[in-house]
Amino acid sequence: MQSRTPASRTGRPRSAAADTAILAATRQALVELGWSKLTLGDVAIRAGVAKTTLYRRWAGKNELVVDAVAELFDELRVPDRGSLAADIEGVVLQFAAILARPEARSGLMAVVAEATRDDALRERIRASIVDRQKHLVHAGRARAQARGELPAETDAARAARTVDLIFDMVAGAVVHRTLVSAEPADEEWVHGFTRVLLSGLASAGSA
């Protein structure tokens, strides 16, 4: 079933406080009820809003859960730890810590499973989570280039492909490690992963 796109509406401005309460209530419901039992009615009660308020903002449960999980990933920052390797380790450890949260784990796995048969939902995941977090790669690469750790790329198309590749490698590895293999992405694993990633970046830069 395809996700419905909410129609544009006029009226009172959207309340940021209500959005925050709804997304927090969604994550709480995910932990306590699980994906299958979560309903918009339950979320509305927990958030202290009318059910119609949810439907003015989200077309259904799929979209609501994507946005609730996406808000968690907005906490990610690229720390300035003095070197590219240390910066990567810092952000990967943050990412792994978020994925260790029950609400992130259950929510992300549920919407990814639903997206296998819902193209519109897949695009929402791409826009709300994937594309929204690529700024982390841009920021980390720019800082490393300023330090002289990575060469500058003058070809914009090639630079964009490199950003996509780095993001896919980091996100794919950490998600697989924590959610599929169910193994800890601890400091030892993150250190080894970063070493492998950087050796690949060095090879790509000299190609």
What does this structure look like?
- The chain is mostly helical and 207 residues long.
- 72% of the residues lie in helices and 0% in strands.
- The protein is built from ten helices and no strands.
- It is elongated.
Give a quick set of tags describing it.
elongated; mainly alpha; single chain; 207 residues
Oligomer: single chain
Strand fraction equals under 5%
Main beta-sheet strand count, sense and barrel state = none
* Rg (C-alpha, Å): 19 Å
What is the overall silhouette? elongated
Span between N and C termini?
45 Å
- Measured as a percent range, the helix fraction is over 70%
Secondary structure topology:
Layout: H1 16-33, H2 40-47, H3 51-57, H4 61-73, H5 84-99, H6 102-115, H7 119-133, H8 135-147, H9 156-180, H10 187-206
Helix pairs in contact: 1-2, 1-4, 1-6, 2-3, 4-6, 4-7, 5-9, 5-10, 6-7
Summarize this structure briefly:
By secondary structure, the chain is mainly α.
